[in-house]
Amino acid sequence: MARADLEAGGLAVAALPHRSPHRRISGGGDDAAFDDDGKPKRTGTVWTAGAHIITAVIGSGVLSLPWSTAQLGWVAGPVTLFLFAVITYYTSVLLTDCYRSDNPVTGKRNYTYMEAVESYLGGWQVWFCGLCQYVNLVGTAIGYTITASISAAAVYKSNCFHKNGHSADCGVFTTMYMVVFGVSQIFFSQLPNLHEMAWLSILAAVMSFSYATIGVGLSLAQTISGPTGKTTLGGTVVGVDVVDSSQKVWLTLQALGNIAFAYSYSMVLIEIQDTVKAPPAENKTMRKANLLGVSTTTAFYMLCGCLGYSAFGNAAPGNMLTGFGFYEPFWLIDFANVCIVVHLVGAYQVYCQPIYAAVENWAAARWPRSGFVLREYPVLANGKFSVNMFRLVWRTAFVVVSTVLAISLPFFNDILGLLGALGFWPLTVYFPVEMYIRQSKVERFSRKWLLLQSISVLCFVVSAAATVASIEGITLSLKNYVPFKTKL
Fold it and tell me: CA separation (Å) from 382 to 33, 378, 379, 385, 392?
């Protein structure tokens, strides 16, 4: 059975503010152009923050939800999607109140997830947070490179079938497409920070709506016109769809991990919140943005998961767009896959910007007088875009390395599932819950404390189970692995 394609989950870390380092000079300048922390005025709104969230959450993995639903069945599938939506929204709301220390309205800003953890928890938990966050961010960058290349190759394959017939050999190596995607990311990586990428996230959000809608529409059409696959209340059937009960358990746990990972965006939430203007208070704006992002995501997830399962049944493919056979309407399949590529260009940047900022802030602190590290060279006459040599070299190197790793590890979806399973509990649940308990001084063993800890323990069990299942998937993938020979 195919592994779920890929999800846009992932996490984010930066040790220092990821916004532009330029600050107001005391006693001069226009105060209206700066915020209370001396940094350029933030201009983000509910809509731009919501676009960032949707871009981060709705990844190409939305197309794998029919596969996940097929492992769980008509009852557990939709229920699991809904439960994780509720948990993610609730813990994200808790996290938004931690953007400012002590007081969510007037307290000191925490520019990154790690700063928030340091302010409230400190000690070893800061390093644990950083480890989980950075590993998942790097893994997501590699996974997005792989998935974008698969969608780009699918466009070629679809046109090949249309032109030469369905029996033609239209297999294509994905390496070339990974290289092209990497080159595009070198260019977009030169955008200084997330604050200046609202337009890219809005475009990516539109693309995610487009291909998800196409997937839903094609599934609905096939459900109505047929033929459809066999569906059951409990999902895949032992002895029919899967070999034995052990395989059923592994695939079920993988499906749980994929759905949990599908909703993960807490790792970039603080960074997104740092783009929002005030007043009103940032946490109030982000509550609305969280609701907008999670409710929109859940609606698409339900439609894709349930209608996709209805169309394909227990034999649902890892990517629902490939389940239509790359055949007709070929132009619509092409458009959907192009939308996936464009969306992943933006999503890649949303997840990588905190990595870039962490390294660049460290370099600025390490070499405070270095022109190579700090000097900006204006490119546009209006001064709105400039090039920094350290940024150019470092970000280009990161993209090149992530692209090479994607080419050499084409089964990275399994590894990304492992990273997502490991990161879901600490970053989406544990840290937001613990910081909220510390901030609100929730009494130990009180009803609220017990409820919060119960949610944390439940999600830990799911993450642990999904981790074991992902390791099993990686083991199976390695058996047939041939380096640099991945063909779609």
Answer: 17, 9, 9, 8, 20
Rounded to an integer, what distance in angstroms lies between the CA atom of residue 296 and that of residue 433? Answer: 24
Is there a contact between 270 and 111 (Cβ–Cβ < 8 Å)? yes
For 317-373, the pLDDT digits (tens) are 776 766 555 456 778 888 888 888 888 887 888 778 888 888 888 888 888 888 787
- Are the C-beta atoms of residues 269 and 95 closer than 8 Å to each other? yes
376, β-bridge pairs: 388
Q: Is residue 29 part of a domain?
A: no
User: What does the pLDDT look like over 101-145, one tens digit per residue?
Assistant: 776 666 788 888 888 888 888 888 888 888 888 888 888 788 788
Does residue 487 form part of some domain?
no
Dump pLDDT digits (tens) for 32-52: 677 666 677 777 788 888 877
Counting runs of H as helices and runs of E as strands, what totals does the chain give?
A: 15, 2
The verdict on residue 170 lying in a domain is yes
- What's the Cα-to-Cα distance from 348 to each of 128, 241, 303, rounded to whole Å? 23, 35, 25
Q: What is the pLDDT of residue 79?
A: 92
Q: φ, ψ for residue 109 (rounded to 5)?
A: -70, 140
Altogether, the residues listed in the chain come to a count of 488
- The CATH number linked to 70 is 1.20.1740.10
Q: Which domain holds residue 319?
A: 37-479
3-state SS assignment for residue 418: helix
Let me know if residue 339 belongs to a domain.
yes
Burial class (CB in 10 A: 0-12, 13-18, 19+), 236: buried
For the chain, give the longest Cα–Cα distance.
77
Give the total number of structural domains in the chain: 1
